[in-house]
């Protein structure tokens, strides 16, 4: 398994984007390209350059607070481990491009 930071920047960004909503991703190199996927699929035939680069977990890439923010941005809901105030009106009428952050009191607010 390759170190995550050794992967090309574009692959790292794609993996991080996927890890915002999933617990783990697989990175495979095949036909001269990197592929980021969730889950594993067996194939009848593999490319001559097929290589499993690694399996990467969200808990290894993001801090606990980053994972909470990722969850809120991905699902417009609060994860079970969130300990701050749960203001569900915060999600009324927002789009998926809305970003969130923690305030000084440890509560989620719009960024």
Structure characterization notes:
The protein has 111 residues and is of the alpha+beta class. The protein has two domains: 4-61, no CATH class; 64-110, no CATH class. It is 24% helix and 23% strand. The protein contains three helices and five strands. It has helices spanning 9-19, 58-61, 64-75; strands spanning 24-30, 33-37, 51-57, 100-102, 108-110. A three-stranded antiparallel beta sheet has the order 2-1-3. β4 and β5 form a beta hairpin. The longest helix has 12 residues, at 64-75. It is elongated. The protein starts with 8 loop residues before the first helix and ends with a strand. The model has no long low-confidence stretch (mean pLDDT 96).
């Amino acid at each position: 398994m390759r170190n995550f930071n050794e992967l090309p920047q574009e692959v790292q960004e794609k993996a991080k984007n996927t890890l915002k909503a999933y617990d783990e991703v697989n990175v495979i190199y095949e036909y001269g390209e990197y592929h980021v996927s969730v889950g594993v699929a067996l194939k009848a035939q593999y490319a001559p350059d097929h290589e499993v680069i690694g399996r990467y977990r969200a808990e290894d890439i993001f801090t606990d607070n980053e994972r909470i923010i990722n969850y809120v941005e991905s699902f417009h809901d609060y994860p079970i481990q969130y300990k701050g105030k749960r203001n569900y009106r915060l999600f009324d009428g927002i789009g998926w491009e809305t970003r969130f952050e923690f305030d000084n009191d440890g509560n989620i607010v719009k960024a």
